[in-house]
Amino acid sequence: MTQNPSHKFTPAGFIKLMSFLHMGIAATPIILGAMFYFNNDDPKLMSTDSNDFFLAIVPIVALASIYMGDLFFKKMLASTPKNEGLRAKLAKFQTASIIKYALLEGASLFSIVIFANTQNLIYLIIGAFLICYLFLQRPTRQKIEAALNLQGEEKAKFNRLEEPLI
Fold this sequence. Notes:
71% of the residues lie in helices and 0% in strands. The protein is an all-alpha fold. Helix 1 (11-38) runs parallel beside helix 3 and helix 2 runs antiparallel to helix 3. The longest helix is centred in the middle third of the chain and has 33 residues, at 86-118. It is elongated, with a radius of gyration of 20 Å. The chain starts with 10 loop residues before the first helix and ends in a 7-residue tail after the last helix. The mean pLDDT is 90.
């Protein structure tokens, strides 16, 4: 019995899927930020408003999302047993990555919504910074290899991009 070629799980397909998920997660804050910016009458850069408690909260949320996302990502991948198969390792990488991306997206959306309510460009800049950081997290073959610490046969198997993983 032959398998349907469209159901084969290949490293190239995994990388495409991860890139698609990454871009889908990154698109929401970009669209929302642009929409709020262009529908705003008079945004201002106000960094000295002492009554604006969001000037403390938004940067803390932004930094916490970066730190917690990286920490969770590393802990989840470190908990992967060395003898686990490549396919299972890739599944863990996918889960850890999505959670990391979602934390960054959430903090960015929070910042953008605060911008929409206050018209303070500081919050939009922080949201844009988080989006840029999210873009730097884009999954590539090299980043996946490094994160999973692939060596030997697993690395060779992963580098055969079009060969199905069983």
